[in-house]
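Section: Multi-chain targets

For targets with more than one molecule, the full set of components is provided together so that the structure can be written out for the assembly as a whole rather than chain by chain. Components appear in the order listed by the source. The example entry contains two components.
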Amino acid sequence: MGEEDVYRVLEQVHDPEIRAVNIVDLGMVWDVKASDHVVHVTLIPTFVGCSAQTIIQRVAESRLAAAFPDVRVAVDLNLSGSWHTDRISERGREALKQSGIAPPGKDLGDVACPFCGSRDAAMENLFASTSCRSLYYCRACHNPFEAFKPL
Amino acid sequence: MERWTSDEVKNRPEALKPLTDLLFQLADDDLVIGYRDQEWLGLAPHIEEDVAFGSIAQEEIGHAAWYFRMLEELGMGRADDLASLREARERKNAVMLELPNGEGADYLTAPHFDWDWTIVRHYLHDVWEMARLEALKTSRYLPLAEASEKILSEKRYHRAHQELWMRTMARHDSVSRQKLEAATAKAFQWLGDLPSVGPAETALEHLGIFSGVDEAKRAFWDQVDTFFGELRIHRPEAAKPLDGRQGQHTPELARALSTLSEVYRLDPTAKW
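Its structure, encoded as tokens over all components, is:
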């Protein structure tokens, strides 16, 4: 078993608040060590106060334990490396858009409507349904939408 | 500079005490302001603010949870116990942060909350938190340096929110301006212990756990003065009736803690 096998399992783990994107594409996997006896994964939270982080940690742990029953599995969560939005992969950005969340831009207000692509959007609220998002209104297609906050 | 891990600090009693004292200040500040923030849920002036304060409260308490975890790692006890079971006199938060959201302040029976006061207080907390974390990015204690870098990147959203409100209140009309002035006057009656690090200041500086305490304080006052100057709001001298960094508090803190930990105290061994 190698690190790629571990990543393949982690690609099946999702943030329960953003079902469309797995934690690998979200950039939450900081480090993976795999040997014949031990799998050791270090995750980093997107937002420190994110209430989903311990759920994600537990799900990752149980998925890995099920996939590799003969080795010891440990999943740590720490703040090394300071997660930022550049860690979201191209595939992750596309998946966010597909689920109606604008991927993070370079700074606040740098967003395109995930429905029609227009950049004519007004920020309605810096804060939204979860820590990681702000609320916008698209002046072109008249849909409200959420956008990932740039960090 | 050689950075310390938790195991290295545990073997240095001269560093352990000042470091944990500082971590308690960080944790207690964020826990109690987060507690006050969440009392606005269902009561905020409009629905966007309900959402905003929901997020801000969650993030403050989430930041506190990480600081408490760091204290647990240093052998100070379980993080949940540290958050919920310590007495008011053991708490190191700045006194201003524990005060209720307004007069007649019981959440359930008389929530006559004061929005202006809530925003001004939170702004001052955000400015100090950012000045403090900026300095702590270079802390010799590696887990704290890493956490500071990360948490700082999130704090700017809180501050931007409060600044937007303060600008709006300063410009809107004479009533909103007077309310902003009154809230500012009230905040400065308590502000003194906020931009401070308590009795361990010299040790923290000397050990490199918190280098540049004076610079952080100066950054706080410079930024506050610039902002109040821009709003053309007079800011009085800051008074310090009590020093929360030394465990001095108003009875409001004990009251808040008793509500905050009510469920936890029913069964501290319960698994969540």
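Chain B has one domain: 6-266.
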